[in-house]
Write a structure and sequence with these properties.
99 residues, 3 helices, mainly alpha, elongated
């Protein structure tokens, strides 16, 4: 389930880059990266936290593990998608100037 979230957010990030390029928005690409990193760091891990137990014995290890997974894999995914977009943009501009 978590990998599906990473795949969906990566596709959404790539789609925003593409829309920003096609619509000629004056929105820098690194701001899209920062928005998605904030999403990975602050908002998405909370949806996967386990429910607290009623007997009062709650271990914080699952919360720590989920948070660390989102921080590490989310950062890697966001930066890789950002560099992938820069390579695609370089390829597009290179082929547009040749013709």
């Amino acid at each position: 389930m978590i990998l599906l979230v990473f795949a969906g957010t990566s596709l959404l990030q790539l789609a925003l880059y593409f829309l920003s390029y096609r619509m000629k928005w004056k929105f820098p690409d690194f701001l899209i990266l920062i928005i998605f990193l904030v999403l990975y760091y602050a908002f998405l891990p909370q949806f996967f936290y386990p429910e607290p137990r009623r007997d009062g014995v709650n271990c914080g290890m699952p919360i720590l593990a989920i948070t660390m997974v989102f921080w590490i894999i989310g950062t890697i995914a966001g930066v890789l998608i950002h560099f992938l977009w820069k390579l695609i943009l370089l390829f597009i501009k290179k082929h547009n100037t040749v013709q």
